[in-house]
Amino acid sequence: MKKIFLRFSITIFIILFFAVIYLSTIGITTNIFNSNINEQIKKIDKNLYIDLNKIFLILDPFKLKIKLKTVGTNLKYNEEKIQLENIKSEVSLKSLINKEFSIKKVNISTKSIEIKSLIKFLRLVQKDPKFYIAENAIKKGYLIADIVIEFDDNGILKDNYEIKGVVKDGKINFFKRNRLNDINFIFKVKKNKFQLNDLYLKIENENLQLPETIVEKINNEYLVSGK
Questions:
Q1: Distance between CA atoms of 217 and 224, rounded to whole angstroms?
Q2: Torsion 90-81-110-136 (CA) sign
Q3: In whole angstroms, what is the distance from residue 68 CA to residue 89 CA?
């Protein structure tokens, strides 16, 4: 009887060991978390929806977390959509054991997006007149971005977001007079801080280069610095 129990225990241990190795190196695909992720996103806005493919899971046994990743999906608001390259997140094993699904942090990478389409999408979400002005002023350009957002314990979006990315081949017209062409730059956005690096553009066919520009909001005033 002891030998049978010992063999059974060893067999279970070997199965669990290789299961952990498999999950932490190769992983599995599933769609069981799709509805949970969309519920979290709808806490930002009830009309937001992520058209998810199957989610790829990788186990992190040392941090007791499961890493989630989906590739080739779309963020939708009613009929408008933004194409995303991938979405990454993590879920603690403790929350799953307690039958909870709590996403604390989400990393979103976009595909190359036409800036006018992005502004139109944001205008629907925020309904801010500044987006309407921007949509009419911006004539051309493409953007690729990596976005990091976090949620608190109640699932409310925090304001410590971070956005990094590049803008290529931009064109802006101000009141049909001042034209900015061939706009290219790297950007980084946090709350109350906007940073541009390696900005190149043409103003009425004159070339302009700015290695660094930082705009910070301090006590309802804006401080601009740079090179």
A1: 9
A2: negative
A3: 5
